Structures are given as structure tokens and as C-alpha cells.
Amino acid sequence: MQINIWGILIACFAVTLDFSSCFVNKSRSSIPRIAKYFGTKGRYEEVNPYLLEDILAVNTSILRPPFPKCRPIHLTAIIRHGTRYPTGSIFKHMQQVYEAVKSATPGKECCVCEIQNQWRMWYPQNMDGRLARKGVDDHKHLAVRLSKLFPSLLSEENLRGGFVKFISSSKHRCINSTLSFMAGLTELWDIQDQTFDYVVNDTLMKYFIHCTKFLEDVERNPAALLEVDKFKEGPEMRRVREKIGDQLRVPYKNITADMADAVMNFCAYDLAIKNVNSPWCECLDEADAQVVEYANDLRQFWKRGYGYDINRKSSCILFHDVFSRLDKVVSENMSGQQVTEAVTIQVGHGETLLPLYTLLGFFKDHEPLTSSNYATQTQRSFRPSFVLPYTANLLLALYDCGEGDLRLQPLINENPVTFPGLPEGQEASMPLYRDVRELYKELIHGCDFETECELFTRPNQFSIKDAL
After folding, report:
1. Residues 290-329, buried b or exposed e (16+ Cβ, 10 A)?
2. Exactly one of 74, 81, 141, 349 is catalytic; which is it?
3. pLDDT tens for residues 212-234?
4. Which of 220, 225, 357, 209 has its CA nearest to residue 296?
5. 81 classed as catalytic
6. Which of 183, 244, 305, 460 is the most buried (most CB within 10 A)?
7. 43 touches 313 (CB < 8 A)
8. Which residues lie below 8 Å from residue 33, measured CB to CB, with a gap of 6+?
């Protein structure tokens, strides 16, 4: 039998050429088209794009006190940890997708070809949810920006004098984010002769694990996420799963909604941690990403947001901590004493911030998010992609404008917002503190954490009528 060596070589060369055509997508930009749909896996820079040009950029004009004599006397900052590695549960689904693609029929489509021939699983499994180097930088940079926004409060003098307090969740990524924030300040002022302490307080920063009613009725109750499950099996997600199956050459029946989410997570983590627009990003177009984002938003809505009243009430303890501190600052200031806490930095989780936002009334839509109203929720306010990226933050700046005129300015992700329910107008972004207390008086006097979180009933299932 004669062997046609030249024929074999030509065939192999043709195959090589066939695959090599996928190695570089020259039209791919540095930022994926779908980056603004990453939900809680998104970069802070997607919320504030100007930081891509200058990571330390601030615009002090956004503070805009109503009177020239207004001076800031206190800042509370509640901050989510920085960019982290995937947690174990997320990694499991990512691994499933990767193995399915690696064993799929080779193809020359850019998405599957690059993954099969060039991309490698680089996520270290032992880094389960740990802070990435990018997360360290997230908090260092935020510390410098806040010191530039509030130079009289977050100052070297106040830091050295013990007037800046640090509180953290016990989770390693939160502690390391707190240490990174401190490092941002000490490096800024070249402080080498002094160290600074932080307090671990899970009662405040992980209050949700101490709320029995929340744990039993929502966190551990599969029926609480009925709307999420229905959407995952609905026509929108089915279309996305079919497209992903075609793209990755994996049978549709093998692609679950969790695996579709994992595809977007690959893209999100590659961008967030390595600043790379990876081939995984090519597997979803914007329409696909919007569907996957909505599935994640549904989960956040029903598990941490407006879906059930106990979600927001679980944050009562943090709410009272904030207002008790503000009241103390007001009292010290009015009596002519030095404010003992010029700045309070509290580092926690997305699960720390979202129920508090919900309690305060931010990002509430006219209709609840459900499995059947995806098409009418495209302009929704409840969008974790814009609200809860890594290093998301709620800033509350208290001002003394003279003659007992005390005002409170809220900022979310360094952007001024107005408290829901207060009148619009020129001074809406910095209302009188007494008006803010009046707005939330029922919560101030009636939102008791122990009472709200005590388990009186244990329903077997929830329905839409249980939503706020």
C-alpha cells in the first residue's frame, strides 16, 4: 500500500490554516460589548467609565453644597469588597462549560476555536472567592479618590489622630479590602511610623446570616426563587441556551441556564481580573447578555431586594447603626465638641448593600421583576450591573452649613443621588438632616432587627402577592 505523504502534509497544513484563522480576532475591542451586563461581577469602571482614562479622577463639583459656608463634618462609607476570584459554586459551573467545549467537535468558529486551541483554564480553584490583585487596587484607588473628594475629613491628620474608623466583615476578601483601603492612604501620605486597626463586626456587615426569618423564609427556601426558576425555563433563556449550544458545538440539552451564566462569568472574570476581552465574550451577543443579566437580577430582586419584606428589614441593624452615628455627630457638633468619628469606613458585601438600598427605597420600579415581564423591564431601575459592581459604595456626607443648618448628601458609587420620597429641587441632593430623619422616622422608631428577624411562621412557599 502506497502512502501519499504529500497529501497528508497538505491536508494537515490545511487544517492548521483552518484553525489558525481563529486565533486572533483583530476587530475585537479591549472591552467586551456585553461588559455593562455583568451584574455583580462587573468592574467599577463600567459604572464610572471616566476612570478608564484616570483611575484617580474625581470631580469635586458634584458635591455642590447649597451655601458657600457649608463644611463637611462626617463621612460614612459602606463599601463592597474589591474584585475577587470565582467562588466554589460559580467555579463548578464554569468548569462544566469548559470541559464540554474542550470535548466538543472542533470548529473554526472564532468563539469555540479560540477556546479549544488557545484559551486555558487559569482560575486557581483554591482561590475560592479571594480578593484578586485588581481588588487590592480597587480599594487603594477608592481611598485616594475619597481623600481627594473629602480632603478635610479623610486626611492624614484625622487618620493619625484616630478619627477614621474601619469596620469589616470577617470574610477574607473584606478584610483584605479594608487593609488595601488603609494601604491606599498610608502610601498616599508615606506613613511608615504608624499602623492602624480595624474592627471585625459581622453583626453589622453580615447581618443577613443572623436574621433567622430571612434564612428560613428566603435563603434556604427553594420556593422563594420560583420566579427565577420559571424564567430559566422560559422562552428567552431557552433561546440563549440554544444559541450557546450552536456556538460551542455542544448539544442544547447539555446547556443549562447555569452554564449559560457561566459563559458570561468567564467573560466577566477575564475582564475584571486580567483586563482581557476573552473569546468567551464572543459566545454571547448583547441580546443574549441582557437575558442572562435579567435572570441574575431576578435572583437579586427576590433574594436580596424588593421581592420579600424581610430582605430589606434584615438590614435594620445596619440602618440604625448609620443613623445612630449621624445623630452622635450632630450632637457633638451642636455642642461645640470635636467630632470623634470624622470618617467611618465599613467594608462588606453586595448582600450588605442591596437590602439597605431597598430599605432606603432606592432603585424601586413601579412593578416587581417577574419571570413574565422581561420585555417591559428593559428600563428598570433595579440593575445590579450599575448598582453593585465590585467596590460599590454608599457614601453619606454630613455638612454643617451654619446656624444649625445640617445637611446630608448621599452618593452611590461616587455619584450624587436623592433620597426617594423627598421633594425635588435645587437642594434635593443635599437635604436638611432633619428632613431625612423625618422621611425615615418609621424605620428609626420601628425597624427593630430582633423583632423583624424572629421566626414567627415558616411558609412552605411564596407568591407574587408577598412582594412589596
Report:
1. bbbbbbbbbbbbbbbbbbbebbbbbbbbbbbbbbebbeeb
2. 81
3. 999 999 999 999 999 999 999 99
4. 225
5. yes
6. 305
7. no
8. 281, 285, 286
